[in-house]
Amino acid sequence: MNPIEIGILGAGNIGQAFARHLVKAGHRVLLANRRGPASLKSLVGELGPNARASTAHEVARLKIVLVAIPWTELPAAMSEFSPWDGCIVIDANNHILGFDGKQFQLADLRGRTSSELFSEMVPGARVVKALNTLASAVLAQEPRVGSGRRVIFISGDDAIAKKTVGDLLESIGFSPIDLGTLAAGGRLQQAGAPLAGKNLVRCPE
User: Fold this and answer.
1) With a threshold of 0.90, does the pTM exceed it?
2) What is the reported pLDDT for 46?
């Protein structure tokens, strides 16, 4: 894949881990958070010349945007943007409300998947669920493990969008596995689901 520019909304641990892999592979990243570009000066300096900080509205105009924002803040954050007009939005979010010291407290999705609900917050976007199953410390590690590659699960309703995200993930060293639609695949990979937290490596056949 030729180098491209990827937007990242939410520069927390997940966003930073993804950004580091992208710039290492030669891609460019444009980052934004709720505190503004100045708060990202140190991170951008660390990432190097292929990274820069901007406003959330500029990031949202890119063709591929990762969103990694706490669940409780998502509705308000996404309400700031107009229809996404076919943009590919990577949903790296989990419906976590908090942690009580023993386990994560999850939002009641009323039988739907978190990505289906997220899709309604980003009208016009082609949503691909990805990068949500690994802990940020694991996601930040080298994607290539020996002769294998760390697995990233993806789900989505748009085949071309999934292929684009899959190619991007492969270009930075991961091995994407397509789980199907947001309803079917998303139910397997969202927080609390069977694949959540699974750190798998695909080895050459």
Assistant:
1) yes
2) 97
